[in-house]
Design a protein that fits this description.
This protein has five helices and ten strands; from the N terminus they run βββββααβαααββββ. The chain is an alpha+beta fold and 193 residues long. Among the domains are: 33 residues; 101 residues, no CATH class. Strands 1-2-3 form a three-stranded antiparallel β-sheet, with no helix packed on it. The chain has a three-stranded mixed β-sheet with strand order 5-4-6. A hairpin with a 5-residue loop joins strand 4 and strand 5. The N and C termini lie far apart (91 Å).
Length: 193
Amino acid sequence: MQCPICQHTSSRVLESRSADSGKSIRRRRECLNCKHRFTTYERIERVPVTVIKRDGKRESFERAKLLRGLVRACEKTGITAAELETIINDIEIEFQQRSLREVSSQQIGELALEQLKQISEVAYIRFASVYRQFQGIRDFVDTLAQFKQNHPPTETTQTPQAVSDPLDASGLNPTVHQASASPSACSTSLIRS
């Protein structure tokens, strides 16, 4: 390491400490020529990632932008800020491991969805609705059907077995129908008392 005073290239390390929450190492050094003491920092060099948007524009990957989208999708789901940070860290690690310099916004969205799929169905559907630009109920139904096919219900997941008609309080006697992923498969039969 070159001394900032005399430009001599030999120095010795007096002390090393973790800095920046473990993301860098702070080293206190002494020049072997002039005995001047100085501090250096050692950091991991990350490959800068450029995002290719849907319209073809390119921009730098912004961690905060992805975090905002995840926070919106995860509102009132009980997912902690630490879990969201972990999701973003995992996505960034994926980029670094592949040494990707350019990544499409679609790839980022799919990686985020894969992470959300493991922790919250609600957050997954919310994020997918914005990321995949849902145009109507059919998009929600298709995504839910695909999610259900790939992830059978767990103990914490409750799938309604039957849906009753909201007109029940009106004095009409509704029949109960099995829930279906297809809106066209549902019909309402009302019988007057």
